[in-house]
């Protein structure tokens, strides 16, 4: 991982040397192909419900180039108009009406009419009653859905049609020109985009590239936009190279499987108290992320400090002292995502911490797992929506007590307490998502929520510096 | 058991004992030799292990030295002295450096004893390194300053368990604060494979990583050793005592598959002592980290023992055979006079007093034989004298009997003749009448004399039996018919017959049998002058028939019974003493036996046993 970080820094250093000078000398212009690399290797351009964080971000970013949601949320969780320009709900928040933007067309030339949108949305949510009117759609839900707009802003609710080959047809800035599953996606600029034509003519996305390969490619100027490890993005930047670190939008946590041998809550609590998060954050995560004991990060709720993330070995030993011998003699198997380069070291460190208080944890990818170190996406700045999504990904049972009735602090806190009761999940860190762009990439203003743009459609403002421009300097 | 057999057994036992003693002696000597050889081999392997341990330790120390002198480590040491605290920078360095030097273990430890980077367990950063002694760390300039100059055995914790390693420590000192480099290599089957093991020997290594016995940490050249549980007691002994020990492990029921194992405890450094720099892994009074097990196959010893045993059995068998032959020859030589003596004694017992023993030796047996010969000669002379006396007595008895028998008729003859002479002289008128009476008396007495003479003549002229199939029951009935009239006259004698039917035929002379039975019946009638019961029985016996004649007369004394069949002996006032002698003669001529049983005042029973075919008996008698 350090090597990746060095490469990344080297790339930034090389590219930044020219990029900083170019900024003042050039103006945005059309043309060029933006080269992008991603870790995931999807076989289809769809966003699966159980996608890993890496796949989630890659596919969400990719599909958001092709399609638009009805609304989007800013960093404060406030809804912003996209395909929908106005919305309202009844007081019970069971019935919503969204007025659609007029004149929007899909890439195949068909109108993004309320009927077409209602059909797509109805297929995505069979439980909803979606109806179209002249210039609006109405959505009726049961039960009440106060966070409907946050839900509609999620990438899974992009308004996309599919052709016979499953290729998405949306209303976004780019349309699919070529698709080689798991390898390459070529996108062409949508001349008729309702947002206006993007500066770049095309985007080429290469899939299945490790972070290491991406860093090398960026260093060799073979790509323009890459993903990066958060710890690499925290390194000092300069020379015009740009990197982006989002707000913490992922949760790294330990999750006990339903058939885990560690069924006694005292063992789970002891393990939670044994984990010293600070060294993991400072050494293994290189300072990236925030130690966490709550599901939602502090920037969403403001109360995460209430959940103590401090290790307390004496308390853990006291808890274990009350256990019977069999529970103490049991070895718990801890698994992790092998694609996550940091996961193994973090898991081994947790096992080391656990051993200190007398809990035998064996890090292994084989056999039935008792505990899983997993990373989940907090996809929305809306706390209630992210909490529900996190609970779903973590496999936590959602009851009425663990579902917030609103985004009020009290409701969120109680819901989160409900989810964390029994230590079925031990939150460890809230992690940001990092990206980096080469020096020829201009106008890149990545958003704080791990999107490729902080406002409007992603990559809409990006333009590429040409070699000639670079050569004149 | 005969003397010869006893002699044979003695010879065999002696040979067997000699062979057994010899075999046991050889057995024991070979066993001791093998045990000494095992001991020497085990010591050689242990010495080789120690030598290899030191060589590998030196190699590890050299590699660790290279790591400590590397630019990367010097940079880290410099950072430490500058007060850098971001251990995250170095987390992967130990792994990279270990890979470059091909070390299995490598840790970079700061002056407080805290791990900065660990190759074997990267997540271990920030934890204290237990191998380094507390205190003295910040001032150390060389490993010797903390007592770790050489290489040593150490238990190393890994994410998936512990293992044993051969470690060395070096100090990278750029500024005030030393940076410790602790590197090592695994001590496992790979290490064992570098040892030059003699044929028939193998080496196992038990990694003493847990308080309890763990068979998975008993390693041979291929990994976890099979059948580890059988070695557990040996390892447990070494663990308990920290002393070398040895034991025999029987892998199968075949003792040739067994192995003798020498357990040699391997200890680590004693962190509480100043002798940390000792490179020897085999030392008492330290923490036990492993047990080296040197196993030697017992097959050569067992096979040699088996060969000795089979040879001993062969030699023993041949010895016993030779002993048998020798004893037979010797026994024959020794026992021949004794056998001759025994045979002569049997002949003497059978009545052959002319039996002699031919012994030429002059030893005790020769003297015994001479004594025996003298004894038989004396017995023969004694018998002749006895026979002569008996003959004289018999003749006297015969003369007495003849005189007695003849005297009775002679007296009437004399009186009658005198009466005739007196009548002739004194009353001739009555002479005629007296003459007639006298001549009648004379004739009667002369007949009487003839009868007496006839009986004697008859006894002397007993004919040989003329054999033919004979029914004994018919003979009995014939005899009873002869006496029918006489018995009817003497109606006070009751006759009872119990004749077995069927009764096998015998080959006999019916006339002689008739005569013998007739004598017995006549004796029985004479024995019951006052009346009684006469019982005649026949019965089938093995290979013959039995005839018994019983009376209820006054019976006989035992002395009378003994002399009853002696010729001319009689208990009757007018008997010749020849009747029962004739009966015995007839029975004997038919190959049979006659016996008498009598109880005074109760009666007498004569029992005759006659064979169906007496030819064989007769032949044997001839």
**What is the name of the CATH superfamily of the largest domain in chain B?**
PAS domain
CATH topology tier name of the largest domain in chain B? Beta-Lactamase
Structural class computed from helices and strand pairing of chain B: alpha+beta
Task: Count every helix of chain A, treating DSSP H or I runs of 4 or more residues as helices.
Answer: 15
Beta strand % of chain B: 15-25%
How many extended strands of chain A? 23
CATH superfamily of the largest domain in chain A: Dipeptide-binding Protein, Domain 3
Number of domains of chain B: 3
N-C termini distance of chain B: 34 Å
CATH class of the largest domain in chain B: Alpha Beta
Quick recap of the structure?
The complex is a heterodimer of chains A (473) and B (622). By secondary structure, chain A is of the alpha+beta class.
Report on this structure.
The complex is a heterodimer of chains A (473) and B (622). Chain A has 473 residues and is an alpha+beta fold. Chain A starts with a helix and ends with a helix. Chain A has helices at residues 2-25, 53-66, 114-124, 148-152, 211-219, 230-233, 265-274, 277-284, 298-301, 313-321, 325-329, 343-357, 383-394, 409-420, 467-472; strands at 33-37, 71-73, 79-81, 84-89, 95-100, 129-132, 136-140, 161-162, 168-169, 174-180, 184-189, 202-206, 225-228, 242-245, 250-256, 290-291, 331-336, 360-363, 371-377, 425-431, 434-437, 441-442, 463-464. Chain A has three domains: 2-67 and 172-246 and 433-472, Periplasmic binding protein-like II (D-Maltodextrin-Binding Protein, domain 2), CATH 3.40.190.10; 71-162, Alpha-Beta Complex (Dipeptide-binding Protein, domain 1), CATH 3.90.76.10; 250-431, Dipeptide-binding Protein, domain 3. Chain A is built from 15 helices and 23 strands. In chain A, a hairpin with a 3-residue loop joins strand 6 and strand 7. A six-stranded mixed beta sheet of chain A has the order 16-20-15-19-17-18. A four-stranded mixed beta sheet of chain A has the order 1-12-11-10, covered by helices on one side. In chain A, strands 4-5-7-6 form a four-stranded antiparallel beta sheet, covered by helices on one side. By secondary structure, chain B is of the alpha+beta class. Chain B folds into three domains: 33-301, Beta-Lactamase (2-Layer Sandwich); 353-461; 464-621, Histidine kinase-like ATPase, C-terminal domain (Heat Shock Protein 90), CATH 3.30.565. Chain B contains 14 helices and 18 strands. Chain B has a six-stranded antiparallel beta sheet with strand order 8-7-6-11-10-9, with helices on both faces. A five-stranded antiparallel beta sheet of chain B has the order 2-1-5-4-3. Chain B starts with a helix and ends with a helix.
């Amino acid at each position: 991982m350090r090597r990746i970080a060095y490469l990344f820094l080297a790339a930034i250093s090389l590219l930044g040397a020219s990029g900083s000078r170019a900024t003042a000398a050039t103006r945005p212009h059309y043309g060029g192909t933006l080269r992008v690399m991603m870790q995931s290797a999807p076989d289809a351009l769809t966003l699966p419900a159980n996608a890993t964080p890496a796949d989630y971000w890659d596919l969400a970013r990719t599909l958001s180039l092709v399609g638009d949601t009805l609304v989007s949320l800013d960093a404060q969780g406030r809804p912003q108009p996209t395909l929908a320009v106005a919305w309202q709900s009844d007081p019970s928040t069971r019935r919503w009406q969204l007025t659609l933007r007029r004149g929007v067309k899909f890439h195949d030339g068909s109108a993004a009419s309320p009927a077409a949108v209602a059909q797509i949305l109805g297929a995505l949510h069979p439980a909803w009653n979606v109806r179209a009117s002249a210039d609006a759609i109405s959505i009726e839900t049961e039960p009440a859905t106060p966070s409907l707009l946050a839900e509609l802003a999620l990438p899974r609710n992009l308004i996309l049609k599919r052709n016979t080959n499953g290729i998405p047809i949306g209303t976004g800035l780019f349309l699919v020109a070529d698709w080689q599953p798991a390898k390459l996606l070529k996108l062409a600029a949508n001349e008729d985009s309702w947002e206006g034509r993007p500066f770049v003519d095309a985007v080429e996305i290469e899939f299945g590239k490790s972070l290491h390969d991406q860093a090398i490619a960026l260093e060799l100027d073979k790509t323009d936009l890459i993903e990066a490890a958060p710890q690499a993005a925290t390194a000092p930047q300069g020379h015009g190279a740009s990197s982006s670190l989002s707000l913490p939008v992922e949760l790294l946590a330990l999750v006990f499987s339903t058939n885990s041998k560690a069924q006694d809550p005292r063992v789970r609590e002891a393990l939670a108290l044994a984990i010293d998060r600070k060294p993991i954050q400072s050494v293994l995560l290189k300072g990236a992320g925030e130690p966490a004991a709550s599901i939602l990060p502090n920037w969403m709720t403001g109360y995460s400090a209430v959940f103590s993330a401090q290790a307390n070995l004496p308390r853990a030993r006291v808890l274990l002292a009350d256990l019977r011998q069999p529970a103490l003699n049991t070895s718990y198997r801890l698994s992790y995502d092998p694609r996550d380069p940091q996961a193994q070291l973090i898991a081994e460190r947790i096992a080391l911490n656990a051993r200190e208080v007398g809990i035998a944890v064996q890090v292994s990818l084989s056999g039935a797992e008792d505990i899983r170190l997993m990373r989940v996406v907090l996809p929305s700045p809306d706390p209630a929506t992210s909490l529900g999504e996190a609970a779903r990904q973590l496999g936590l049972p959602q009851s009425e007590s663990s579902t917030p009735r609103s985004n009020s602090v009290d409701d969120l806190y109680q819901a989160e307490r409900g989810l964390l009761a029994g230590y079925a999940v031990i939150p460890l860190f809230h992690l940001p998502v990092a990206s980096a762009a080469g020096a020829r990439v201009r106008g890149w203003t990545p958003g704080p929520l791990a999107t490729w743009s902080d406002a409007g459609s992603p990559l809409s403002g990006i333009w590429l510096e040409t070699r000639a421009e670079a050569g004149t300097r | 058991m005969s003397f010869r057999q006893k002699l044979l057994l003695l010879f065999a036992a002696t040979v067997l004992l000699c062979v057994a003693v010899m075999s046991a002696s050889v057995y024991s000597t070979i066993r001791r030799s093998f045990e000494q050889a095992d001991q020497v081999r085990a010591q050689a392997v242990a010495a080789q292990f120690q030598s290899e341990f030191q060589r590998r330790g030196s190699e590890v120390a050299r590699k660790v030295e290279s790591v400590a002198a590397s630019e990367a480590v010097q940079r880290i040491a410099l950072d430490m002295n500058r007060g850098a605290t971001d251990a995250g920078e170095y987390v992967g360095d130990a792994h990279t450096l270990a890979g470059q030097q091909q070390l299995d273990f490598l840790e970079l430890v700061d002056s407080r004893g805290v791990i900065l980077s660990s190759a074997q367990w990267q997540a271990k950063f920030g934890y204290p390194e237990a191998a380094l002694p507390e205190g003295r760390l910040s001032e150390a300039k060389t490993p010797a300053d903390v007592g770790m100059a050489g290489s040593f055995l150490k238990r190393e914790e890994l994410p998936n368990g512990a293992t044993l390693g051969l470690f060395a420590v070096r100090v990278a000192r750029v500024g005030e604060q030393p940076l410790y480099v602790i590197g090592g290599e695994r001590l496992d089957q790979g290490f064992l494979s570098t040892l030059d093991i003699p044929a028939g020997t193998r080496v196992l290594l038990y990694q003493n990583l847990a308080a309890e016995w763990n068979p998975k940490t008993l390693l041979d050249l291929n990994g976890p050793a099979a059948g580890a549980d059988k070695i557990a007691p040996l390892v447990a002994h070494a663990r308990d005592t920290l002393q070398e020990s040895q034991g025999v492990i029987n892998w199968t029921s075949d003792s040739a598959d067994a192995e003798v194992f020498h357990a040699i405890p391997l200890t680590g450094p004693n962190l509480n002592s100043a002798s940390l720099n000792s490179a020897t892994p085999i030392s008492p009074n330290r923490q036990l980290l492993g047990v080296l097990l040197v196993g030697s196959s017992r097959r050569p010893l067992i096979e040699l023992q088996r060969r000795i045993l089979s040879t001993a059995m062969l030699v023993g068998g041949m010895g016993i055979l030779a002993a048998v032959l020798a004893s037979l020859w010797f026994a024959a030589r020794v026992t021949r006079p004794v056998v001759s003596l025994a045979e002569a004694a049997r002949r003497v017992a059978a009545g052959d007093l002319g039996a002699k023993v031919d012994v030429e030796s002059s030893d005790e047996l020769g003297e015994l034989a001479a004594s025996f010969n003298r004894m038989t000669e004396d017995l023969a002379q004694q018998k002749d004298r006895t026979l002569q006396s008996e003959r004289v007595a018999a003749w006297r008895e015969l003369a007495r009997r003849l005189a007695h028998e003849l005297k009775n008729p002679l007296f009437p003859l004399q009186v009658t003749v005198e009466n005739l002479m007196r009548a002739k002289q004194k009353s001739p008128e009555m002479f005629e009448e007296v003459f007639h009476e006298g001549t009648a008396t004379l004739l009667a007495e002369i007949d009487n004399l003839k009868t007496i003479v006839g009986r004697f003549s008859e006894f002397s002229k007993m004919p040989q039996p003329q054999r033919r199939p004979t029914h004994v029951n018919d003979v009995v009935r014939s005899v009873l018919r002869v006496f029918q009239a006489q018995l009817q006259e003497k109606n006070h004698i009751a006759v009872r017959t119990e004749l077995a039917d069927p009764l096998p035929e015998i080959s006999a002379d019916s006339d002689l049998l008739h005569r013998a039975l007739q004598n017995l019946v006549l004796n029985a009638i004479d024995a019951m002058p006052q009346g009684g019961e006469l019982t005649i029985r026949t019965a089938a016996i093995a290979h013959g028939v039995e005839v018994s004649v019983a009376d209820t007369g006054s019976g006989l004394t035992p002395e009378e019974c003994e002399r009853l069949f002696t010729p001319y002996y009689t208990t009757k006032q007018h008997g010749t003493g020849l009747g029962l002698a004739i009966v015995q003669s007839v029975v004997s001529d038919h190959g049979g036996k006659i016996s008498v049983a009598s109880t005074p005042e109760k009666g007498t029973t004569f029992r005759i046993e006659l064979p169906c075919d007496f030819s064989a008996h007769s032949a044997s008698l001839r």
